Amino acid sequence: MPDIPLVPAHWRFPAQPASVRRARHAVAASLPDVLRPRLGADLSLLTSELVTNAIRHGACWADEEFIELVLWPADGHYWLAVSDPGAGRPVLARPGVESESGRGLVLVDSLAAAWAVRPRPTCGTSVIAGLSLQRGGG
After folding, report:
1. Any alpha helices (H) in the chain, and if so which ranges?
2. Largest CA distance in the chain
3. CA angle at 72 for the pair 68 and 73, rounded to the nearest 5°
4. Contact 19/67 with Cβ under 8 angstroms?
5. What angle do CA 102, 70, 104 make, to 5 degrees?
6. pLDDT in tens, 11-44
7. Reduced DSSP (H G I as helix, E B as strand, rest coil) percent helix, strand, coil of the chain, to 5
8. How far apart are CA 5 and CA 123, in angstroms?
9. Phi (first) and psi of residue 9, to 5 degrees
10. Class of domain 9-137 (CATH, top level)
11. Cα–Cα distances in Å, from 107 out to 78, 89, 94?
C-alpha cells in the first residue's frame, strides 16, 4: 500500500495588516515540534514577508479580499504558498541602501532553497517558497 501524504495546512486571512501576525503564528504552530528548531525562525520570516507583500501589492483592503496560505512537506522541503487576488507579478529587485522598502523578495531569495511566482487557475498570483529539511545541520 502506498504512503498516504499529509494533508496540506490551509488558511484564509483578510487582506489586512493584522493578518501578518496571525498568519505567522498559524504557520509556526502547524510546524512539527521536531522541526521548529531548524525551520521555525526562517519559516516565520518567509511567512511575514510573503503575507506582507500579498497584502500590500496583491489585494485591496477596501474590497474585503482575502489571502490564502498553504503549507506542506514534500521532496525534502517544507513548502509555503501565499496567494492573493492580484494580477501583478512580484519581481526580485535590489533596492539601494537608502531605500526604505523593497527587500521582501531579497529575503525570500536568501532563505528559500527555491521559490517561484505562479498564476492561480482562476485569478490572482501565488508565491511559493521551499525550505530544505536539511537546513541548519538537520
Report:
1. 18-30, 36-58, 104-111
2. 57
3. 160
4. yes
5. 10
6. 999 999 999 999 999 999 999 999 999 999 999 9
7. 40, 25, 35
8. 27
9. -75, 140
10. alpha beta
11. 17, 17, 11
- Please state, in angstroms and rounded to a whole number, the distance separating the CA atoms of residues 18 and 94: 27
Examine the pLDDT at 138 and tell me if it is beyond 50: no
CB 119 within 8 A of CB 86: no
The predicted-structure confidence for 117-131, as pLDDT tens digits, reads as follows 999 888 899 999 999
Q: How many CA atoms lie within 13 A of 104 on its CB side?
A: 19
| Pick from 67, 92, 86, 79: nearest CA to 125 | 86
Distance, CA of 45 to CA of 23 (rounded, Å): 11
Owner of C-alpha cell 525562525? 41
Amino acid of residue 114: A
Do residues 101 and 57 touch, judged by C-beta distance below 8 A?
no
